[in-house]
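Researcher: Sequence recovery benchmark, item below. Answer with residues only.
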C-alpha cells in the first residue's frame, strides 16, 4: 500500500537515547534542515483552498489542513531527465550499473522481463517457425513487436533500479549498525541527526523498492495482455490469467502448467469416450436447391461487414455427395492436370526453354515458402448470412464448374491451411468475393519482379500506330497448383471444405508466376517482330498499319490458343484503332498523347469533390486521394509538383495512417488551396507526350561557396555569389547554379530535351521528383525552376555525375559495377568484326572500355566525340554500340529514323518489347556471343561479370 508521511517518521522509534533528541524527526522536518544546509529553497506549505460554511462565524475556526511539498534536488532532476530529449534512441549509459549484478537475479526477476513460453507463443501465433526454435518468439505485427521491446527495456531499467536499491539498502543498513555500535562525538545532537537521516533513508529505500516492484508487476501484466489479444478468450478468462502470480521463468508462470494439465485431461477424457462410447455418424441434411447466379444478383444488396477471424462452432461437416449419389472419393495427388496450359504442354516444349516455366505448367506451381510450410491449426469456417451467403454459394458453384476448386473429403480435412472466404460490396453495386490469403502470404518468400509500367508503355508507342487488345479470361486459372500444395489453399463454408486447384487471386506470388509464364509464351512472337505489351491478363498489340495489326492479332491469338490460353472476346478490342484505353490510360498515336482514361478521371474528380472547405473527411480518404494522384503522375506532367502541397498538409496532421485511418479531419482553406490546380478542368485531361526521347542537350553544372560554373557543348559560363549567399546551404547553391545555367544557355537549348549533369544528388532528386518535403527552401526554388522550364523546354531531367573513377575495390565499395562500363573480351570483338565489318565509332564507351578509336562517353568529358551520344549527330559510318538497358529503345529509334548501320550488343530477352524492334531492323543473321568467364570485365580486368549467361548477349546487325 502507498506510504504516508507518518510511515516515514522516526517518532516513537526504539533506541536507547531517543528521548534526548530535541529536534523534529518527521521526514519534512529533517528534509527542511537538509535543504537549509544545501542551500535549496524550501517551498511554502499550501493552505486549504476554501473554507467551509460549517465553520460558522463566532467560534474560532478549526486548524486548516496544509499540504507540505518537498523541494526538488537539482542533481536528481538533472539525472532523471537526461534522456528525455530523445527518450527512445538516447544511448546514455547508467553509470555503475555493471557493478550491481547480484546473486540469482535471473531467478528472482531482477534482470529481464519473464519470457513468453514458446508453446504459448506458437499456439497464439502459428506463424512462428517452430516452438522449439532457438530464436525468441515474436508477435505477428511489427507494432506489437515494437511495444513489446519498449516494455522489455522499461522492465530492465526498473530491474536495474531495484538492484541499485538492493546495494544501497545494504550499505545504509550497515551504516545504521555502525552508528549504533560507535560512540557518538561530543556533539550528541549532530550524531543523533545523522542516525535519524540514516533511518529515514532506509525507509525511503523501502518505499522506492515497493514502487519499483509494483511497476514491474504492471509491465509483466502489460506483456501478458499483449499476447492474450491473439486469443479468443472472454474478458473474464483474460483477467484471471493477467492476475496469475509472476514467475521469472515464464510469462504466464503457474498458469502454463495448469493449462497443460487441463488440456491433457480433456484429451484423455475425449479418447476414453470415443473408445467406450463412439459417436454415431449423423445423416446428411436434405440438400437445399442452390439459386442461380442471375437469381442471386437480382436480389437487393444489403449492408455487409467483413467477418472476424474467430473460432466458431461450425455446422457438422457431412460427407459430400457426388452427382451420382455416391460419396466423394479421397483426393489423389496424382490427379490429372486441371490448368488449361498443362493440357498443351507439348506445344510449350517446342517454343519455351525455361525449365522453371515448363515444370510449373506441367506439374503445377509449387508454393515457394520462406521456411517450412505452415502447420495445421484448425478448420476456419467462413461465416456469411442472408444475401451474402447466397452469393458466396453461387460463386463456389461457379468455381466448381470451372474446375478451379474441388471438395475435400472430411477424412482429409485435418491438414493444410485454411483461409477466410467472404464478400465485400462493390462501389458500383453488387458484391465481390474475397479469399483472404494474408496469413498464408506471410509464410511465402518475397521476390522482386518486373511488370509493364506506365512509363515503359509510353515509350512503346510510335507515331501512327494501330492498336488492338486481347483480354485473357480467368487469367490465373490457366495455371494449376502442384497437387501436394493444394491443401494450403483451403477454405470452409457451410460445413463443406474446398481447396483451390489453380492459381488463386490474393496469393502474393500469383502475379510473378503468371508474368513469368506469359513472358515465356510471347517470347517467340517478339522474335518474329510482333510488337506487344502485356500487363497480367491484358495484352496490347501495335502495328504500323491496320492490316498489320489485324495480321499480328490473328497470329497472337493462334499462338496463345495453341498454348492453352482462353480469351474474353467481350473485353477484347479486335478492330484496329489509333486511340485505345489500356491499363487506365487513353493512348492516341495520332496526337502522340497519353491521358487518364475517362473512368479514372471521373474517380479522381469524385474524390477531389469531397475536399471542400468545412467538410469532414477521414484520414484514409486523404491517403486514397494521394494514391490516386500517385497513380496518375505519368499522364499528368506537373502532377508531382502540385501534389507536394497536399502531401505536406496531410503530413502536418501527424496522424497514424493505420491506427487513425477513421479519424475525421476538417478540410481547411489551406487544404483546399493545395488542391486548386488538381481541380482545374484541363489539368487531368491535358495528357503527357508518347514516344522515346532520342537526343538531349546536355548542360553540366557545379557550385561552391564562392561561385558557380556550367558548360554546354564547349560553351562556358561562370559567376560569383554575393556575400549574402555564401552562408546559404550548398544544396541551394547547387540548384541555383542549375537555374542560372539554364537561363544563360536558353538560346541554344530552347524547345529541346535538356539533361542537367550535377554532382549533387539532392539537386538531382528535387529536379526529377519535382520538389520535395524535407527542405521548403529547396522546394520553392525547384518549383520556380520547373514552372520556368515548362514553357521553354520540351523536358528537363537531371543525372548525377560520379566522382573520380577508381578501380577494383573502390568500384565495389560504391555498391556494384555499372552495366554501361562492362568491356567485351578482345577476342570476342575480333570475331564480331570478322562477321559484320570493322566499326569506326563506339557510341557508349569510356577510355577504359572503348573498342574504336573514336567514341562517345557517358561521363568522360575528354572523350574524342564528346559526352552523351544521344546529344550529338552520329557519323555516317558503321557504328558499334553496347548501350545500357535504358538506352536500347532510343538507340533503335535513332537507327530507324536516321537510317544508320550499327552492330548492336544487347541481351536476347524475349520478355522485352524492344526485341521486336531489333528483329525488324536486322539486315543479317545475328550472332550469340560465346559464354566464357572473362566475357565481360571492368577496372582493367580486375572484375568479371558473375553471370554472363543471364545477360544472353547477342551481336545484332541492324540498319534503318
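Model:
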Amino acid at each position: 500500500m502507498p506510504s504516508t508521511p507518518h510511515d516515514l517518521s522516526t517518532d516513537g522509534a526504539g533506541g536507547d537515547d531517543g528521548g534526548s533528541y530535541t529536534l523534529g524527526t518527521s521526514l519534512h522536518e529533517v528534509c527542511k534542515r537538509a535543504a537549509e544546509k544545501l542551500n535549496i529553497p524550501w517551498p511554502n506549505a499550501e493552505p486549504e483552498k476554501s473554507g467551509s460554511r460549517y465553520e460558522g462565524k463566532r467560534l474560532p475556526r478549526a486548524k486548516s489542513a496544509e499540504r507540505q511539498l518537498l523541494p526538488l534536488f537539482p542533481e536528481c532532476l538533472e539525472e532523471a531527465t537526461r534522456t528525455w530529449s530523445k527518450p527512445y534512441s538516447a544511448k546514455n549509459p547508467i553509470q555503475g550499473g555493471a557493478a550491481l549484478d547480484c546473486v540469482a537475479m535471473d531467478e528472482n526477476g531482477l534482470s529481464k522481463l519473464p519470457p513468453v513460453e514458446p508453446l504459448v507463443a506458437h499456439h497464439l501465433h502459428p506463424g512462428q517457425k517452430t516452438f522449439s526454435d532457438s530464436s525468441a518468439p515474436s508477435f505477428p505485427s511489427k507494432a506489437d513487436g515494437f511495444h513489446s521491446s519498449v516494455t522489455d527495456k522499461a522492465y530492465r531499467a526498473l530491474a536495474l533500479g531495484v538492484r541499485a536499491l538492493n546495494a544501497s539498502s545494504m550499505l545504509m543498513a550497515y551504516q545504521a549498525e555502525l552508528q549504533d555500535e560507535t560512540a557518538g562525538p561530543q556533539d550528541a545532537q549532530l550524531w543523533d541527526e545523522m542516525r535519524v537521516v540514516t533511518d529515514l533513508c532506509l525507509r525511503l529505500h523501502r518505499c522506492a523498492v515497493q514502487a519499483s516492484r509494483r511497476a514491474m508487476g504492471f509491465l509483466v501484466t502489460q506483456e501478458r495482455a499483449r499476447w492474450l489479444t491473439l486469443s479468443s478468450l472472454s474478458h473474464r478468462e483474460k483477467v484471471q490469467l493477467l492476475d496469475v502470480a509472476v514467475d521469472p521463468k515464464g510469462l504466464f508462470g503457474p498458469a502454463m502448467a495448469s493449462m497443460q494439465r487441463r488440456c491433457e485431461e480433456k484429451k484423455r477424457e475425449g479418447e476414453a469416450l470415443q473408445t467406450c462410447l463412439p459417436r454415431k455418424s449423423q445423416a446428411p441434411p436434405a440438400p437445399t436447391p442452390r439459386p442461380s447466379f442471375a437469381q442471386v444478383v437480382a436480389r437487393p444488396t444489403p449492408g455487409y461487414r467483413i467477418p472476424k477471424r474467430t473460432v466458431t462452432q461450425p455446422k457438422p461437416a457431412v460427407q459430400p455427395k457426388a452427382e451420382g449419389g455416391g460419396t466423394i472419393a479421397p483426393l489423389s495427388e496424382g490427379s490429372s492436370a486441371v490448368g488449361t496450359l498443362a493440357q498443351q504442354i507439348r506445344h510449350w516444349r517446342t517454343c519455351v526453354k525455361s525449365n522453371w516455366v515448363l515444370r510449373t505448367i506441367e506439374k503445377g506451381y509449387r508454393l515457394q515458402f520462406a521456411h517450412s510450410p505452415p502447420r495445421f491449426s484448425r478448420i476456419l469456417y467462413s461465416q456469411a448470412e442472408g444475401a451474402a451467403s447466397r452469393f458466396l454459394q453461387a460463386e463456389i458453384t461457379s468455381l466448381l464448374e470451372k474446375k478451379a476448386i474441388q471438395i475435400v473429403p472430411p477424412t482429409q480435412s485435418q491438414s493444410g491451411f485454411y483461409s477466410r472466404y467472404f464478400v465485400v460490396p462493390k462501389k458500383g453495386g453488387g458484391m465481390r468475393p474475397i479469399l483472404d490469403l494474408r496469413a498464408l502470404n506471410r509464410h511465402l518468400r518475397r521476390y522482386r519482379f518486373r511488370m509493364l509500367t506506365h512509363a515503359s508503355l509510353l515509350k512503346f508507342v510510335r507515331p501512327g500506330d494501330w492498336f488492338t487488345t486481347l483480354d485473357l479470361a480467368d487469367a490465373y486459372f490457366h495455371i494449376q497448383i502442384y497437387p501436394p500444395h493444394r491443401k494450403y489453399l483451403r477454405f470452409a463454408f457451410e460445413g463443406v471444405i474446398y481447396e483451390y486447384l489453380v492459381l488463386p487471386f490474393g496469393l502474393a506470388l500469383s502475379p510473378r508466376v503468371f508474368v513469368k509464364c506469359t513472358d515465356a509464351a510471347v517470347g517467340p512472337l517478339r522474335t518474329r517482330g510482333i510488337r506487344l505489351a502485356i500487363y497480367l491478363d491484358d495484352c496490347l498489340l501495335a502495328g504500323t498499319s491496320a492490316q498489320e495489326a489485324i495480321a499480328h492479332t490473328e497470329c497472337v491469338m493462334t499462338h496463345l490458343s495453341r498454348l492453352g490460353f482462353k480469351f474474353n472476346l467481350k473485353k477484347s478490342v479486335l478492330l484496329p484503332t489509333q486511340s485505345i484505353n489500356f491499363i487506365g490510360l487513353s493512348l492516341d498515336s495520332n496526337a502522340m498523347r497519353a491521358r487518364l482514361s475517362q473512368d479514372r478521371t471521373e474517380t479522381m474528380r469524385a474524390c477531389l469533390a469531397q475536399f471542400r472547405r468545412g467538410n469532414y473527411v477521414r484520414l484514409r480518404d486523404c491517403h486514397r486521394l494521394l494514391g490516386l494522384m500517385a497513380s496518375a503522375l505519368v499522364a499528368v506532367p506537373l502532377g508531382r509538383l502540385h501534389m507536394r502541397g497536399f502531401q505536406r498538409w496531410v503530413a502536418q496532421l501527424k496522424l497514424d495512417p493505420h491506427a487513425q485511418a477513421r479519424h475525421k479531419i476538417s478540410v481547411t482553406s489551406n487544404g483546399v488551396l493545395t488542391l486548386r490546380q488538381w481541380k482545374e478542368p484541363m489539368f487531368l485531361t491535358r495528357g503527357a507526350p508518347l514516344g522515346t526521347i532520342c537526343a538531349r542537350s546536355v548542360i553540366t553544372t557545379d557550385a561552391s561557396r564562392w561561385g558557380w560554373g556550367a558548360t554546354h557543348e564547349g560553351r562556358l559560363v561562370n559567376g560569383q555569389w554575393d556575400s549574402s549567399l555564401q552562408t546559404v546551404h550548398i544544396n541551394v547553391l547547387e540548384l541555383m547554379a542549375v537555374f542560372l545555367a539554364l537561363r544563360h544557355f536558353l538560346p541554344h537549348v530552347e524547345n529541346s530535351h535538356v539533361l542537367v549533369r550535377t554532382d549533387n544528388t539532392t539537386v538531382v532528386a528535387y529536379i526529377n521528383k519535382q520538389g520535395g518535403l524535407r527542405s521548403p527552401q529547396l522546394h520553392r526554388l525547384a518549383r520556380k525552376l520547373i514552372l520556368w522550364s515548362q514553357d521553354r523546354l520540351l523536358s528537363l531531367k537531371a543525372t548525377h555525375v560520379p566522382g573520380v573513377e577508381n578501380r577494383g575495390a573502390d568500384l565495389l565499395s560504391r555498391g556494384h559495377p555499372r552495366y554501361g562500363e562492362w568491356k567485351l573480351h578482345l577476342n570476342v570483338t575480333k570475331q564480331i568484326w570478322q562477321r559484320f565489318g570493322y566499326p569506326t565509332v563506339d557510341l557508349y564507351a569510356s577510355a577504359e572500355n572503348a573498342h574504336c578509336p573514336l567514341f562517345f562517353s557517358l561521363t568522360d568529358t575528354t572523350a574524342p566525340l564528346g559526352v552523351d551520344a544521344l546529344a550529338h549527330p552520329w557519323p555516317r559510318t558503321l557504328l558499334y554500340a553496347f548501350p545500357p538497358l535504358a538506352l536500347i529503345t532510343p538507340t533503335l529509334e535513332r537507327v530507324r529514323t536516321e537510317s544508320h548501320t550499327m552492330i548492336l550488343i544487347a541481351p536476347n530477352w524475349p520478355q522485352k518489347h524492344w526485341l521486336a524492334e531489333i528483329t525488324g531492323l536486322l539486315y543479317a543473321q545475328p550472332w550469340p556471343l560465346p559464354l566464357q568467364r572473362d566475357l565481360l570485365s571492368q577496372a582493367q580486368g580486375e572484375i568479371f561479370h558473375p553471370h554472363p549467361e543471364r545477360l544472353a548477349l547477342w551481336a545484332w546487325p541492324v540498319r534503318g
